[in-house]
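User: Teach me something about this protein's shape.
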Amino acid sequence: MKYTNEIDRIKAIFKDAEVFEVDADYEIFHAKIDGVRLVFYPHKTSTGNKHLRVRNGTPKRKNEFLALATILNISMNIPVKNECRNVWWHGDNKEAIKESYPKYQSYWEAAEFFKKLNIAGGL
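Assistant: First, the predicted structure itself:
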């Protein structure tokens, strides 16, 4: 499976994540966290750069998806696709989402830890 570094990071942040390959066009793998499915897919920019993106695979749990995707964005800078537009979270939005989902506190802590490692050059 490609993207092993990203998958390892997802498993490290979300200890209870179920990550699996899918046999679908334009999708690489899915991660199921707390019953919410995150769909990861490749994206190629107009300049030819390639990166990973994530979109919601459980539309009825949009708010939880946004909280989980925000956690990913903090740690890995993965662009989030939501309703046909990229969503970036900054400042107060991030804190409001964090306060709304205390059950995800351990995920936030893990994401912040990995973010600090990235800044320090550890990963």
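Now, about its shape. Residues 83-91 have pLDDT under 50 and may be disordered. The chain has one domain: 4-118. If you'd like, I can walk through any region in more detail.
User: That's plenty for now, thanks!
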